[in-house]
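Section 5.1 Outputs to date
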Amino acid sequence: MRETLTELDFGSLSRRLREIVPLRQDDLAGITGLTQGYLSRLEAGRVQLTHIDRIVEFLNTIGAPADLVRLPLRGSTQSSSPEAVGSSLQAHEDAAEPWTARRMVAGLQEAMRGEPAMRPNRRQVLVLTGAALSAYIHQWGIADAEPLERALDGARVAPDLVGSLQGTIDSLRTMDANSGSGLVAGLARAHLGLVYETLKSASYDEKTGRQLAGIAADTATQLGWFHFDAGRHEQAQRALLAALRAAHASGDPRYGAGALSYMAIQSYSVGSPRDAVTAMQAAREKVRTVGSPVLEAMLLTRQARGHAKLGENQACLRALGRAADLASHDSSEQDPGWLYWMNRGEILGQTASCHLELGEHRLAAAYFEQAASTLNPNDLRTRALFASRAASAHLLAGDRDGGFAAADSALTLAANVQSARLADHLAKAVEHVRAIPGLWSSELVERSRQVMAAKEL
């Protein structure tokens, strides 16, 4: 692989990559945006990739480490540290590791690495993208789960401990929705440490082991989400990949679907929307027989966002329509507890966000207005996010009054939420406000400066 990258032999690179992962030509074509026929001719040496933009896009989508290619890939720098190169290579190698209980525990330990209080680095890129990430997702879907039973000298895990561990992550999830990731990421990391030690050192039977793995998956997923919300993308992906391994060990595909849904959000947020679509398609296939319409609806909204980022209008609208149909079904016993927040307001807000991405600003603004009245009042971050996007939609549609009102609402809500992701959306909205001269505009810009300054303190 190193040799093909050095020589920029894209036909050999494609063929070798598909052998290692493994992937069909159709799969790799979908990831890279090439047609299957073109990819076949490329591997046969009958055509060559010569256009620089297509070469860069091809290498980006397969997840080629930027530091091994002398081209301007995402995340490339003029002087990358050996540690950064090592992290990328380690992640690619880890994707091929067997899906064993030992690797799950090692993944959880890796997820806890890093300082949760560090300032976000918005220039971080994902260490796994494209085909390498697809390999991870593919193995989650097909690998057999090992028995999870520890017959050690360690203390026997009592049922009330399992309940307590699950209750803690449920509480952290609610705290995050109300206050933002900035105040709970450290708590989630500490809680994952306790779950990790229990899996590694305690004694438990098969049923309890599966339950513990599920709690580990849930906790690592939330930790990954907290890191992402705070702008720490590499740490977020480490936690989410660990969550996927723990979900696999639990035997419950709903946990894996949850982890993949956050991977999808991260992917389309950092410029890899095709990865988001791929992840959601794999997750939907895995939970197809579970019997949770609301879970599939949530996955479809994330897939729709990926399609919207790619400019795939019809695919986006089909996914949104199907999501709305599924969300209208009665609740099911198979609906995961962590999906309590999935409601009509969420569907409307995600629909609005898709229309905003597609440049349909008036339609987006209308959907945001509908969503605002149906969201959970305690979910401050989601309300603030949707309000900030609504401000952009209104202003881009030429509705100054609606835009200023939405921006005012977003700033009021944001004052009580610690979220780097929210700060980014607010900054975009404020830029649209700043472009409109007038006293009200100046007052909103000054107020946003004060809110952001208070958050920094």
